[in-house]
Amino acid sequence: MYTLSKQVATVYVGRKPLMNYVLAVITGFNAGAEEVTLKARGRALSHAVDVAEVARSRFLEGVKVGKIKIGSEEISIEEQNRTRNVSTMEITLTRSKPKPKVKPKRKRSQKEKKE
Amino acid sequence: MYTLSKQVATVYVGRKPLMNYVLAVITGFNAGAEEVTLKARGRALSHAVDVAEVARSRFLEGVKVGKIKIGSEEISIEEQNRTRNVSTMEITLTRSKPKPKVKPKRKRSQKEKKE
Predict the structure, then answer these.
(1) Is residue A112, in this structure, part of any structural domain at all?
(2) Which residue of A has its CA nearest to B65?
(3) Is the Cβ pair A87, B49 closer than 8 Å?
(4) Domains identified in chain A, total number
(5) H helices then E strands: how many in chain B?
(6) pLDDT at B108
(7) For residues A58-75, b (16+ Cβ closer than 10 Å) or e, as one string?
(8) Do residue A70 and residue B89 have CB atoms under 8 angstroms apart?
(9) Is residue A26 domain-resident?
(10) Residue B114 within a domain
(11) What pLDDT is attached to residue B95?
């Protein structure tokens, strides 16, 4: 459902339940991604917007909606020997502040006490 | 289906056939709007992207997709005494170049011939 290369993760949104994709987005950010891109086409477009909104507002603090791209793709229907256009969308979610690192802070406070 | 104030038109996309909204967008630009904003929510989101793509690629030359905004709204369901979140989207189409004015061009070419 998602691919992770370097610091950019991509989640392809289809017909599965919303929370599957929200979990994929959270997993992407937890794996160290700075950006997670949601890709969808056709009727799944509105599903992708739902995923972005739920992930951002309920689960991920400091994650913002970045660039949104829309476009269209041609799909060939072999049975009828013709092509159809289908709309596509890409929503990029970006982490706006780094994760708070708990362990290093503790070490620092111990040092400060010694001093 | 659409409102026009100054140079900004708004088209609310719902469940009507695609071409109704495409026609509303074209009418907006023909009435002198510099920007036409498509607004939709819930399942109509993908319909709004379709409208933008069809209007841009098939009917309106020099019109580009500008800002795209996503968000969510709370809707109260009175029967069940609770609220539901619904995703919203705004797609702004902007005219990137002015309409070609045919008459002034003809006058210029006549002057050039004289010179």
Answers:
(1) no
(2) A70
(3) yes
(4) 1
(5) 3, 5
(6) 54
(7) eebeebebeebebbbeee
(8) no
(9) yes
(10) no
(11) 86
CATH number for the domain including A23? 3.30.110.20
Q: What is the pTM of this model?
A: 0.74
Question: Which residues of chain B does A53 touch, with a Cβ-Cβ cutoff of 8 Å?
Answer: 70-72, 85, 87
pLDDT in tens, chain A (115 residues): 665 556 788 999 999 999 999 999 999 998 888 899 999 998 899 999 999 999 988 888 888 999 999 999 988 888 888 888 899 999 999 987 655 555 555 555 555 555 5
Q: What is the pLDDT confidence band of residue B97, given thresholds at 50, 70 and 90?
A: low
Residues of the domain holding B93: 2-97
Q: What is the distance between the alpha carbons of residues B21 and B1, in angstroms, rounded to a whole number? A: 8
Structural domain includes residue A33: yes
A71 shares contact with chain B (CB less than 8 Å): yes
- Using a CB–CB cutoff of 8 Å, tell me whether A75 touches chain B: no
User: ipTM of the predicted structure?
Assistant: 0.71
- From the list A62, A33, A68, A34, the residue with the least C-alpha distance to A49 is A68
Question: Residue A87 and residue B42: Cβ atoms within 8 Å?
Answer: no
What are the backbone angles phi and psi of residue A19, rounded to the nearest 5°? -65, -25
